[in-house]
Amino acid sequence: MSIADKTVLVTGATDGVGRLAALELARAGARVLLHGRSEEKGAAVLAEIRAATGSDRLEFLRADLAALAEVRELAAQVLRTTDRLDILVNNAGVGSKSRGVSGRETSRDGHELRFAVNYLAPFLLTHLLLATIRRSAPARIVNVASAGQQAIDFDDVMLTQSYDGTRAYCQSKLAQILFTVELAERLAGSGVTVTALHPATYMNTAMVRTAGHTPISKVEDGADAVLNLAVAPALAGKTGLYFNRKQAARADPQAYDPAARTALWRLSLELCGLSDQG
Questions:
Q1: What pTM was computed for the model?
Q2: In the chain, how many domains are there?
Q3: Catalytic pick from 169, 202, 242, 256?
Q4: Is residue 277 part of a domain?
Q5: Helices (DSSP H) in the chain: which residue ranges?
Q6: Virtual CA dihedral for 149, 154, 159, 165, nearest 10 degrees?
Q7: Is residue 278 domain-resident?
Q8: Residue 53 sits in a domain of what CATH number?
Q9: Residue 64 lies in a domain
Q10: Is residue 242 annotated as a catalytic residue, yes or no?
Q11: Mean pLDDT, contiguous 10-residue spans, the chain (278 residues)
């Protein structure tokens, strides 16, 4: 897949896998929209990638994905910036523990933080950009999930009764995969593919270190796996799949339960204030 004439949005592009994926996409000639929470870090990463690649087809878009209003503004920024979007990489996320906080946290909208950032934000962002993505077909949506997965408890999705950071993280990542499978079915025949992946285990990233884990994989390994789903010619037309790095794999059984996927879809539309056509 030649990406020299493609426009790509990478969320969480100021650190870790997202930063490296954005660098390699820019090096390959793509126009890259980089998202992050910090203007300062965004400016530094733009300068770094420009220096490394010589590309002038880079733009930084700031938004805090812990606020649905800012997710909407991010989508609006993208639509003001470009009339096409060939590849969307939903990479931004928060780990099982953040900023030294081990207890339950909530987003600005009052939702459990991991569910909000890791799942609801990409659900909403994807919906708001979907018309543009469809017009750009063949196009790809890549959701960076995890091998850490736990079935969603629809009686307590926000984990108000029994909170555990690892459970919250694993539930949010499985939600991404349910969304991947469901959206792929809904987009069948459109020329837009949707895939999800576990990029690598305990990469040397700030997220992993903040959660208290010892890194065992390189960031380069994870970025390579993400880029495989984003641009590999062999994956043209492959959709609704979950990958463990570069190998197609089976996710938690709940991902293949149509009733669970429908329940999550309806809940997500409600929480994001979207219609079923949204």
A1: 0.94
A2: 1
A3: 169
A4: no
A5: 16-27, 39-53, 68-81, 113-114, 121-135, 165-186, 206-210, 219-231, 258-272
A6: 0
A7: no
A8: 3.40.50.720
A9: yes
A10: no
A11: 88 95 97 97 97 97 98 98 98 80 89 98 98 98 96 97 93 98 98 94 58 65 95 97 97 98 98 80
